[in-house]
Amino acid sequence: MSEHEHDHPHEPIGNGDEPPAAARARALEQLLIEKGAISREDVRDRIDWLVSRSPADGARLVARAWVDPDFKQRLLADARSAALELGLDPGPSPVVVAVENTEDVHHMVVCTLCSCYPRALLGPPPAWYKSLPYRSRAVSDPRGVLDEFGLELGDDVELRVLDSTADIRYLVMPRRPAGTEGMSEEELAALITRDSMIGVAQPAAPTPIG
Amino acid sequence: MTYHPGQRVRIAARSHEGHHRTPGYVKGKTGTVERAHPSFTNPETRAYGADGLPQQPLYLVGFSQRDVWPDYPGQGRDRIYLDLFEHWLEDAE
């Protein structure tokens, strides 16, 4: 800070453009640490865990289900166990549900109350998932929202919106794109985007082999 | 577990002071139990430092979008699903 005469009131020194919610979170964190409820290391461990997660884990689950019908049945019956079977961390939620998109049914996931999300399998949620416009319109005008994501559903497709209001985490298993016959599980996994597992997009189209 | 998949249930229309996880848009609406989940601690008391016991059964309940939003702009078959705790459900059969 440059030196200047303090003959005027001003805001306390902060992190510049830090939003009020972040300042409040830092103050709470400091208090909890002082009270011994949590440690600095706990906070760091949780952040490290969260940022180490990525949609690649969810994509591995879906890709395996695309190539292995028996695994697909196990994934749809109990996604948590299926994740453990592949050595993936399904996260703290005791129940993870995978829902299958088909020719006739499309699923999309929202959390209207906050930002519940299968973070262990998809990583941190995107900012738009936590935004008020998505959270409110995904339930009342989901086809309009999908249009804005560039996904137009046919009138004959039944759209099912899942509002994660409690302890269950939902993962969408998108449809395997046409033209992917003969692709390896790893190649398929590369097509399975985060957004396709939230249900606001289809998987990427395969690159034609030239 | 009081309710079973396939059963019609109405969501209680009551207001609730403080934290709860039943969105206003389904209060008073009638839907169908899709899945019976395990029981979980009650967020309505857990949010205030209590232990959330006794645990409450949780259900996935599905609704026709047109039953939830009278002016729903999508297709008639579209549905919306929420996880709702048993103490918000009423038998609608």
Task: List the topology elements.
The complex is a heterodimer of chains A (210) and B (93).
Chain A (H helix, E strand, L loop, with lengths): L19 H15 L5 H13 L2 H13 L1 H9 L1 H7 L10 E5 L4 E6 L8 H4 L4 H4 L1 H9 L1 H7 L9 E6 L5 E5 L11 H5 L4 H5 L12
Parallel strand pairs in A: 1-4, 2-3
Chain B lengths: L7 E4 L18 E11 L2 H4 L9 E9 H4 L10 E7 L3 E3 L2
Antiparallel strand pairs in B: 1-2, 1-5, 2-3, 3-4
What do these coordinates show?
The complex is a heterodimer of chains A (210) and B (93). Chain A is mainly α and 210 residues long. Chain A is built from 11 helices and 4 strands, in the order αααααββααααββαα. The longest helix of chain B has 4 residues, at 43-46. Chain B is globular. The A-B interface holds A 94-95, 97, 112-113, 139-144, 155, 157-168 and B 21-23, 25, 35, 37-38, 40, 43, 58, 60, 62, 65, 68-69, 72-75, 77-85.
Structural key phrases:
heterodimer, A: 210 residues, mainly alpha, two-stranded parallel sheet, two-stranded parallel ribbon, 11 helices, 4 strands, 10% strand, B: 93 residues, mainly beta, 2 helices, 9% helix
